[in-house]
Specification:
Elements (H helix, E strand, L loop, with lengths): L9 H11 L35 E4 L6 E4 L3 E2 L13 H13 L4 E3 L8 H10 L7 E6 L1 E4 L2 E7 L3 H15 L7 E3 L8 H13 L6 E4 L3 H10 L2 E7 L11 H8 L2 E5 L31 H18 L6 H12 L12 H9 L7 H12 L10 H5 L4
Parallel strand pairs: 3-4, 4-5, 5-8, 8-9, 9-10, 10-11
Antiparallel strand pairs: 1-2, 6-7
Helix pairs in contact: 2-3, 5-6, 8-9, 8-11
Length: 385
């Protein structure tokens, strides 16, 4: 079986785009391809003379305000839940490239690994104190290092335990934002907010955040301890937060950090129904990444291609630029293991879509029904509606 013979490397594509000022429609190959694509190597990480992020945005307001680069970096995929991972040194070099290109916000969590992602990020950020911020998360339940997936634990004792472990693993004095990863039915959100507020007073946490919660939970938490940011999935194929969460963030002065802003790589245009994910890649378990769903949803990628090809933009850049145009308090955190993709993502910060272009893009995508749920039943049950 031929493996990625017809695959167009994004870095080569971007070079062509820069020379010709014309976008190329990246059509999915008909060959079977694997998601274990080439990771960043020492050869790729040359001097930082490419794309960079030169803008900043502020998450939160008042005492909870947190100013960061307009685009952050999601670190999960460096060694967890994605196919082939770079070796440790290559991952560290990529993080350093991101820093050199202006990224100041790096996101991880206790559960990524578990524990291993924080340690990797800690090594990568060593020596950059004061120049960058790292955010992490608490709330999943672990017994003897194994996650109990049917339960959550945001008890005050566990929040404090996770905080100490995260500080130790990351090698930092304070976490930029400490997010509740998923809500805990057994712990009132007021108790969660009070505990994080105490950690803020102690200087171990700078700001409070919540993930995948509804407007009622946000309002209740914010009344106890000002919330700096909400982190939830948000992209052109999943816009649920527009119904009540984003309006509330605007009302209360809370920032919003979309995770999976390119829909776990799908909106980048390099995944098709023949893609086979590695056993360690969680996308193989998600309904939206099953072959039939992928085949139907590729119409959305085609719409992004059609929109971007005359403007000189890739589908991934369109997806990110759209998000950043939705509100000035939105800071997406795309992740990658490749320098070429990092460059591609960062170039999106220089794109400003007009109101007319936003309407055109949303109209085109909204006309195409999305096939498949984003999570399985258990994971979906942990997301507040």
């Amino acid at each position: 079986m031929k493996k990625e013979q017809n695959h167009i490397d994004r870095r080569d594509f971007l070079k062509r785009t820069a020379l010709a000022s014309v976008a190329f429609c990246v059509a999915p190959t008909l060959e079977k391809v694997y998601a274990t694509r080439q990771t960043v190597t020492a050869k790729e990480t040359g001097p930082s003379n490419g794309a960079s992020v030169n803008q900043q945005r502020t998450l939160g307001s008042g005492e909870a305000a947190f100013t960061v680069s307009a685009m952050g970096f999601g670190c999960m995929g460096l060694n967890y839940h994605r196919s082939e991972h770079p070796d440790e040194q290559a991952a560290i070099r990529l993080v350093h490239e991101a820093i050199d290109r202006g990224v100041t916000l790096f996101d991880t969590a206790e559960s990524y690994g578990p524990f291993t992602n924080e340690r990797l990020v800690g090594k990568a950020l060593r020596g950059y104190a004061g120049r960058v911020s790292v955010t992490s998360k608490f709330g999943h339940k672990f017994v003897n290092g194994v996650q109990v997936k049917t339960e959550e634990d945001s008890s005050p004792a566990n929040i404090r335990k996770v905080c100490e472990n995260s500080l130790r693993s990351l090698g930092v004095e304070a976490l930029g934002i400490f997010y509740q990863h998923r809500s805990d039915l057994n712990t009132p959100i007021e108790a969660v907010a009070e505990t994080v507020g105490e950690l803020i007073k102690e200087g171990k946490v700078l700001h409070f955040g919540l993930c995948e919660v509804n407007a009622d939970t946000i309002r209740r938490a914010h009344a106890v301890c000002p919330v700096t940011a909400i982190q939830s999935e948000y992209h052109l194929m999943h816009r649920t937060v527009e119904e009540s969460v984003l309006p509330l963030c605007r009302e209360l002065g809370i920032g919003f950090v979309p995770y999976s802003p390119i829909n776990r790589g799908f909106l980048g245009g390099l995944i098709n129904e023949y893609t086979r994910f590695s056993p360690n890649d969680n996308r193989q378990t998600l309904p939206r990444f099953q072959p039939e769903a992928i085949r139907k949803n590729l119409r959305i990628v085609e719409a992004l291609n059609a929109f971007g090809r005359t403007r000189g933009y890739t589908p991934a850049q369109i997806a990110l630029a759209w998000l950043m145009r939705k509100a000035p308090f939105i800071v997406p955190i795309p992740g990658t293991t490749k320098l070429s993709h990092l460059e591609e993502n960062l170039r999106a910060t220089d794109i400003t879509l007009t109101d007319e272009e936003m309407r055109e893009l949303e109209t085109a995508v909204s006309a195409i029904p999305v096939t498949g749920s984003r999570y399985d039943a258990l994971q979906e049950s942990k997301v507040q509606k």
